[in-house]
Amino acid sequence: DNFTAKSLGDKKEKTLAMIKPDAVDKMGLILDMINQKGLLVTKAKMVLLSRAEAAQFYIEHQSKPFFNGLLDYVTAGPVVAMELMGSNAIQAWRDLIGPTNPSDARSQNAQSLRAKYGTDNTRNAAHGSDSKESAMREAEFFFPSTGPARANTAQFTNCTCCV
Ligand code: GDP
Ligand code: MG
């Protein structure tokens, strides 16, 4: 197993993945893709975001013309948020999901997640953090490290970085 505590080494980078509502029914296939890529799911939850929560998550885009449509989309049903861990996890997950626009994704690599499950520029199946800073902020958004919920949160036991 590449992910035992002793062998983690440089594989400890974390990213925040979010499977958007219309791709949640593909979670089994998506987990297979994550597994094949050598990424580990260290935290996961399914949650129905309120509009205010979605606006907070996407705060960097609040002045964009697509902001309201984006909030409509990601609040249309439950999302699955995952913390993924592995070597260069941020870039590895971005590579796996593909470009923002699914039609670009399809012309680049038909096997990416957005190529396979994305519909249009808004409904593009998945989110991935774009930097270490956003990965930290976004993981904290879905999996807060403080507060009463912590006591009931299962921790991945082989992971040295979330104890
Ligand atoms: P990402 O990092 O690849 O997800 O892309 P961005 O951070 O730029 O945008 C966040 C999300 O807003 C995207 O995943 C899309 O769902 C949506 N989005 C981004 N750009 C556009 C756009 O030009 N038009 C529309 N309709 N939606 C967009
Ligand atoms: Mg982004």
TrEMBL record:
<feature type="binding site">
    <location>
        <position position="100"/>
    </location>
    <ligand>
        <name>ATP</name>
    </ligand>
</feature>
<feature type="binding site">
    <location>
        <position position="114"/>
    </location>
    <ligand>
        <name>ATP</name>
    </ligand>
</feature>
<comment type="similarity">
    <text>Belongs to the NDK family.</text>
</comment>
<feature type="active site" description="Pros-phosphohistidine intermediate">
    <location>
        <position position="127"/>
    </location>
</feature>
<feature type="binding site">
    <location>
        <position position="94"/>
    </location>
    <ligand>
        <name>ATP</name>
    </ligand>
</feature>
<feature type="binding site">
    <location>
        <position position="124"/>
    </location>
    <ligand>
        <name>ATP</name>
    </ligand>
</feature>
<feature type="binding site">
    <location>
        <position position="66"/>
    </location>
    <ligand>
        <name>ATP</name>
    </ligand>
</feature>
<protein>
    <recommendedName>
        <fullName>Nucleoside diphosphate kinase</fullName>
    </recommendedName>
</protein>
<feature type="binding site">
    <location>
        <position position="20"/>
    </location>
    <ligand>
        <name>ATP</name>
    </ligand>
</feature>
